[in-house]
């Protein structure tokens, strides 16, 4: 989850834009648009989702993995959680 209000607003704008792209894709499919146009729209959606993932992941990493000498076990657990997230995303 984005940790600052500005990061949250940026993420919400991206999500709404992706929603618009998905609506346009549904409309293109309903209207039996040219395959190349549909594939291009899918590629654009994938890029937008990847951008959103990168932005949220960066926010998470900066907040969760900042050095903390007082809680090394918590930092190790956060690192393991992040590695698991990355592995599931990259499948």
Explain this structure:
With 91 residues, the chain is mostly helical. It has a domain at 5-66: Metal-sensitive repressor, helix protomer (Methane Monooxygenase Hydroxylase, Chain G, domain 1, Up-down Bundle), CATH 1.20.58. 81% of the residues lie in helices and 0% in strands. It has helices at residues 5-30, 35-64, 72-89. Helix 1 (5-30) runs antiparallel to helix 2. The longest helix has 30 residues, at 35-64. It is elongated and about 60 Å long. The two termini are 21 Å apart.
Entry summary:
This protein is mainly alpha-helical and 91 residues long. It has helices spanning 5-30, 35-64, 72-89.
* DSSP strand count: 0
- Following the backbone from N to C, one meets helices and strands in this order, namely HHH
The CATH fourth-level homologous superfamily of the domain at 5-66 = Metal-sensitive repressor, helix protomer
**Beta-strand share of residues:** under 5%
Count every helix, treating DSSP H or I runs of 4 or more residues as helices: 3
Mean pLDDT: 86
Tell me the radius of gyration.
Answer: 18 Å
By helix and strand content, what is the structural category? mainly alpha
* Helix content bin: over 70%
- How is the main sheet built? none
Oligomer: single chain
* CATH class division of the domain at 5-66: Mainly Alpha
């Amino acid at each position: 989850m984005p940790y600052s209000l500005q990061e949250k607003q940026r993420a919400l704008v991206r999500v709404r834009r992706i929603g618009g792209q998905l609506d346009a894709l549904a409309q293109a499919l309903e209207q039996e648009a040219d395959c190349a146009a549909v594939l291009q729209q899918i590629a654009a959606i994938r890029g937008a989702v990847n951008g959103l993932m990168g932005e949220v992941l960066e926010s998470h990493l900066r907040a969760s993995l900042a050095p903390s000498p007082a809680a090394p076990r918590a930092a190790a657990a956060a690192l393991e959680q992040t590695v698991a997230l990355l592995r599931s995303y990259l499948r």
